[in-house]
Amino acid sequence: MSGPIRHIVMWRLRGETPEERSAARVKVKTLFEGLKGRIDGLTHIEVGMDVSAVDYACDVVLFSEFTDQAALSSYANHPEHLRVREALGDLRIGRFQVDYPIKETGA
């Protein structure tokens, strides 16, 4: 697969109280947004925190784009990404991911 690829990840996070869940959301957002400009091939990164409060919603979503599949594969083992994963520890209780090629659209 060649060309740009979109990488979307959603997490459910630990937290006994709404305050603990909120703090966990902020931690995930802060750590992943700190990767901006630090990883070759990562062209866009955005982190959103759920505001719906429905019981089936995930807590956080990561929306990122890479120049190609090789850049995404490299990101998985990049020291900065591994640092974030380690800092999050067992904060995540559920993880969902979708990767797909970005198709160019005509104007």
Automatic annotation (TrEMBL):
Stretches assigned to the Stress-response A/B barrel domain: 5-100
SMART domains tied to this protein: Dabb (SM00886)
PROSITE patterns on file: S_R_A_B_BARREL
Signal peptide start-end: none
Name the record gives this protein: Stress responsive protein
